């Protein structure tokens, strides 16, 4: 039977109110660990009071170490999909008794180490690994094995592998975080990567470990993103990967299969592919809201108006969210984004239908899921206060990998620009601090405002490629809130710069003027923002043909392009878009 208890929930809820910058945990195990430098492995200098015992669980059970942060539902669903039952770690002894242990670390380094140390899990983990028991760390679950991290630090890690985890160097001309589908350079004896071949896998992280003479014996694959970094390690039965196999489609599931069953026969021919570098992403967006009958439907706006131009004036219904998301996954979407467009009217924690959409979707969709709409601090009618952390945590627990903040980020940016002070109290800052900036997307909804001269307004003004309706040569992009209904005294350029400073990891760049028009992305806007920030930018609004995708990738620094209506109405299949991009020599995941 699968354990249903929520591990460490009380510990995590208590630590979420602590700023991670104030946490400087010291690993008790690092005091006892030494490594043989020329071999690169760990020996324990002491006889631990902990010992590993063989458990009586069957081959269909895997033990999961969930310390309570971020989206662990995805790895649960992937393991279930592969026919496994899950036993949750409740005590350090559960780690020591595990036949196979999966550690899907999500979030920031310091809070994770704090939880591991407080619960006694750190020492148990090191003992388990030192005894060469089957172990798979994922993302932060790999980083924590190193000696220390610079994230909110320095912070001591488990000290199993030599080296320090540092931030990607954005001065190398790359956007940080590293988000998207990238290629691996797989070494010999990697075992669990045997079926990957030349296929892309999904990364989302701002920090990485660098190969060195001291840790080279651990490395089973590397990845290139401005520099070569460690994408996986292997020593005996101990494995860890920087990418997310549970979010890497069928390729990622093959990695999990090989870890769970090392005796699987070697494939004659790995999966075919042409992965060589970070791919451009094609994202399917589903605007979700209740229709007039109370059913949750996928809709699509025409310049943000989602109602049919008919006598009934009903909400435009383009399908059921779970079904459409599943179809887009099969069609090759690199990510799926849900936007709860009634989020500003209904409190998210009470928005049970949307929570259920995430839960059901994540059961069978193994690519990243983003959800947005109404993620903010809130006080309900009874006077109970909910922090944005609690709201975000509910979405993460339900299957979201990233959350998207809209209006609340605008207000936070306005305050920051007035005061020049980061209060740390905005939803953007709080969620980024606890879960990492790679988990936070800011959605910008600007409207083009034409001016006669660049000095007419105190905002960033650009010269337009195509003049306005009255021949205007210049425009600025006014940000809006509440689903585009209210304009704010801040431009898209100013907002993008501010939210990057406040902790956003990615920008979803919409354009009200282009929404639903099918005439192409606003290239002027996308170029302005993608040239101005050091975080990835997703181009949105206006896609009508495959050529619009190649145009935005060829003329701007957008990392991804998003579309909705053309996919919902089956006007342009996702695969057709990708085939066109390949013809244009633009790397995509196939």
Automatic annotation (TrEMBL):
Binding site for substrate: 374, 510
PROSITE patterns: GATASE_COBBQ (PS51274), GATASE_TYPE_1 (PS51273)
This protein's UniProt keywords: Amino-acid biosynthesis, Chloroplast, Glutamine amidotransferase, Histidine biosynthesis, Hydrolase, Lyase, Multifunctional enzyme, Plastid
UniProt-annotated catalytic positions: 139 (for gatase activity), 244 (for gatase activity), 246 (for gatase activity), 287, 445
Enzyme Commission code(s) on record: 3.5.1.2
GO MF terms held by the record: glutaminase activity; imidazoleglycerol-phosphate synthase activity; lyase activity
Record bears the keyword Transmembrane: no
Pathway: Amino-acid biosynthesis; L-histidine biosynthesis; L-histidine from 5-phospho-alpha-D-ribose 1-diphosphate: step 5/9
Residues involved in L-glutamine binding: 139
Role of this protein: IGPS catalyzes the conversion of PRFAR and glutamine to IGP, AICAR and glutamate. The glutaminase domain produces the ammonia necessary for the cyclase domain to produce IGP and AICAR from PRFAR. The ammonia is channeled to the active site of the cyclase domain.
One term under GO cellular component: chloroplast
Protein's name according to its UniProt entry: Imidazole glycerol phosphate synthase hisHF
Family the entry assigns: In the C-terminal section; belongs to the HisA/HisF family.
Domain of life: Eukaryota
Domain Glutamine amidotransferase: 64-259
Region annotated PRFAR binding, chain positions: 406-407, 443-445, 515-516, 541-542, 564-565
Record GO biological process: L-histidine biosynthetic process
Catalytically driven reaction(s): 5-[(5-phospho-1-deoxy-D-ribulos-1-ylimino)methylamino]-1-(5-phospho-beta-D-ribosyl)imidazole-4-carboxamide + L-glutamine = D-erythro-1-(imidazol-4-yl)glycerol 3-phosphate + 5-amino-1-(5-phospho-beta-D-ribosyl)imidazole-4-carboxamide + L-glutamate + H(+); L-glutamine + H2O = L-glutamate + NH4(+)
Species for this entry: Arabis nemorensis
Organism phylogeny: Eukaryota, Viridiplantae, Streptophyta, Embryophyta, Tracheophyta
Localization in the cell: Plastid, Chloroplast
